[in-house]
Specification:
CATH superfamily of the largest domain: HUPs
Number of helices: 8
Structural class: alpha/beta
Order of helices and strands: EHEHEHEHEEHEHEHEHE
Helix content: 40-55%
Radius of gyration: 20 Å
CATH architecture of the largest domain: 3-Layer(aba) Sandwich
Distance between the termini: 11 Å
CATH class of the largest domain: Alpha Beta
Number of strands: 10
Strand order of the largest sheet: 3-2-1-4-5-10-9-6-7-8
Largest sheet: 10 strands, mixed
């Protein structure tokens, strides 16, 4: 059975992401693990100069455990009240540990052999207060599973259309194969999108697009795949337009180091996109397939 990891700081954004996750997990027949990285004084810059009582650690741990148990019950109630089917609620477990967000998430992913991280976006800020003191880019760099980012007020609904932002790299064919596996759970359409900056040579670009789509047709067996070329001066502008006007339920991007699309998930671009995006954003790790 698949396992999805839900990092939480108990904020409204992370709780909303967990509500999305439980319905998403049901559709993909997965179980959930709620995870919290405890903010302990021992990790502060001046911590070496102070002694922190052991009972203080146990107190924080106990309180965190209680919060996680409460969150489990809230999720179970959310599922029961909003799911009309007769299927059982997905299994929910929890864990907490001290350390940086990347450390705790990494250890928990390995321990539970989880296939995905689902976490919240807090509006115009960076990824929830849960990663404050860490770096969202560092987490994306260090995690080798997809990270699904949920806007703070986004309510779950079955996925009908998925958009995939491609730069027409041949390696994206494997990504599309993985996305097809996800789409089949929902019988969803897949919209392959490429942002062509204004001023690009039209004939050359059309040839590149044609070759890419021909390879997709030959290698990917899924009838509900479409293509849309987006013209915009900036890539991020084209993707913002797509999320606002494309009637899509999820945007998928690939994280590549030192790559054209890579800059889109640097800190500044993540924050900028988070100000405008109103749908879930799935960041796929490069060259890790299949995923679902």
């Amino acid at each position: 059975m698949k396992t999805f990891l839900i990092p939480t700081d108990f904020s409204s954004a992370s709780k909303n992401a967990s509500k999305y996750a439980i319905h998403f997990a049901k559709a993909l027949q997965a179980k959930l693990v709620l995870c919290n990285a405890m903010n302990v004084p021992a990790e502060a810059p001046m911590a070496a100069q102070f002694a922190w009582p052991l009972e203080g650690f146990y107190s924080v741990y106990k309180n965190t455990e209680e919060e996680l148990k409460i969150m489990e019950h809230e999720l179970a109630r959310e599922f029961s009240e909003n799911d009309a089917s007769t299927s059982m609620i997905p299994e929910i477990n929890h864990c907490c540990d001290s350390g940086t967000v990347s450390e705790v998430v990494g250890k928990t992913l390995e321990k539970n052999k989880a296939q995905m991280v689902i976490m919240g976006l807090s509006g115009a800020d960076t990824i929830t207060r849960f990663v404050l003191g860490s770096n969202s880019r560092k987490l994306i760099d260090s995690v080798t599973v997809p990270i699904l980012l949920i806007p703070p007020t986004y309510a779950y609904s079955p996925i009908k259309k998925i958009a995939f932002a491609t730069d027409l790299s041949k390696s994206d064919i494997d990504v599309i194969q993985s996305i097809v596996t996800l789409a089949r759970f929902f019988n969803a359409e897949i919209l392959i999108s490429h942002v062509s900056p204004d001023g690009t040579e039209k004939d050359c670009k059309e040839k590149e697009i044609g070759e890419f789509l021909n390879e997709v047709t030959c290698k990917v067996n899924y009838p509900k795949i479409y293509y849309r070329d987006l013209r915009n001066k900036k890539v991020v502008g084209g993707l913002e337009w797509l999320t606002e006007n494309g009637m899509i339920d999820m945007l998928i991007m690939v994280h590549r180091h030192n790559h054209f699309y890579d800059k889109l998930i640097s800190d500044s671009y993540t924050q900028k996109l988070a100000k405008h995006i109103t749908i879930p954003l799935l960041v796929m790790p490069f060259n890790v397939h299949p995923v679902f």
